[in-house]
Design a protein that fits this description.
Layout lengths: L11 H5 L6 H4 E2 L3 E3 L4 H11 L4 E5 L5 E6 H12 L6 H13 L2 H4 L12 H11 L3 E5 L5 E6 H7 L6 H6 L4
Parallel strand pairs: 2-3
Antiparallel strand pairs: 1-6, 3-4, 5-6
């Protein structure tokens, strides 16, 4: 705890609720691209979605294969504009991506959740693993939505009372 923190028990209901319990509130339509898409397709999917920071790569049956993040795309923008000097590993990865411009060459391993994932687990992963958006998959691994931390923060806003704002200013 930090100086000035007030110990409060976390709201039990929020910690035990699952993605499925709040599905209509926190899960949005994901930005998807097919597994044969290009990086340009990933950019367009993210920009068209308006809120997400990831494009999800799916196969023809909507099974989640990987993610392309805004950070990865911006790294490529920086290389292409000459704003970032490449390191050796990044440079080879960048060259491979430049050859084909295929999204699958640069996609990262997805970190999915399911309807049964507790909200408390997602909050923990946001803080400890520095993740911000989570693909939601069904039992077969098909992408059915995205938990975006903006929506999650909105849904958990109730943990902050109006008096917290006053108390945080200190004496």
């Amino acid at each position: 705890m930090h100086a000035g923190d007030i110990h409060r028990e976390p709201p039990t209901a929020a910690m035990s609720e699952t993605v499925g319990d709040l599905f209509d509130t926190i899960v949005s339509k994901p930005a998807t691209i097919p597994d044969h898409a290009t990086l340009r397709d990933a950019v367009d999917a993210i920009l068209d979605s308006g809120l997400t920071r990831k494009a999800y790569v799916v196969d023809a049956d909507e099974h989640l294969k990987g993610t392309i993040t805004i950070e990865t795309l911006m790294r490529h923008v920086a290389y292409r504009l000459g704003a970032r000097p490449p390191g050796i590993v990044s440079w080879f990865r960048f060259l491979r991506g430049m050859e084909s411009d295929a999204a699958t060459d640069l996609m990262a391993k997805p970190v999915p959740v399911t309807r049964a994932t507790p909200i408390g687990e997602i909050v923990r992963r946001v803080v400890e693993e520095h993740l911000n958006d989570f693909p939601v998959v069904d039992e077969a691994g098909r992408l059915i939505g995205e938990v975006n931390t903006h929506s999650l923060l909105k849904a958990t806003r109730g943990v902050f009372s109006t008096s917290d704002g006053d108390a945080s200013h200190g004496p």
